[in-house]
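We treat protein structure as text, and this decision shapes the records that our systems exchange. The tokens are whole numbers drawn from a learned vocabulary of local backbone shapes. Below, we set out a record of this kind in full and without editing:
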Amino acid sequence: MSDTSDVRASSGWSDGADEAPGAAGSAAGSAAGGDDPVLTRIGFGLDGVQAAQRGRTAEARASFEALWAALGERGDVFHRCVLAHYLADLQDDPQAELEWDRRALAAADSLTAERAQTYESALQVRAFYPSLHLNLASDHLKLGEPDLAREQLERAVRSLDALPEDAYGASIRTAVDELRQRLR
């Protein structure tokens, strides 16, 4: 992966060990014991993300792509958001990473609070946006598009108030500040 994987790592989306926006990462991780079969498969796939970090990216990517194909473009928006986010992180090509991050954002845009809260009652869709826009900003920077990166970073900044005052929220705020410094 690239030099902006540090942004994803600090955003909590990169390895499945930390919480993803609005706890979607913990939703996927804890689903292994839950009753949502798609999130269970995503949760098992997070082991693949960790394997990818040990050099088995293609294997993990293929596993998630098979799950995406089974889910389909019209599958559950919560599942699509979580899965597209993780698929973005497994891409070697920055353009492909951008496309997967766009899919994650589009799914989040369609996600209702009611659907998110069927998984976890405290899950707030608004809390997904700082990380989603941060990832898009990072993608655009990798692609040599600093103006588009700044636009996405500004969207991330405008949504920071949705983050909890916890370690996850602090990590996103730090990543935003770090990317802001790089874009100067």
Summary: Residues 1-33 have pLDDT under 50 and may be disordered. The two ends are 23 Å apart (CA to CA). The CA atoms of residues 12 and 147 lie 25 Å apart.
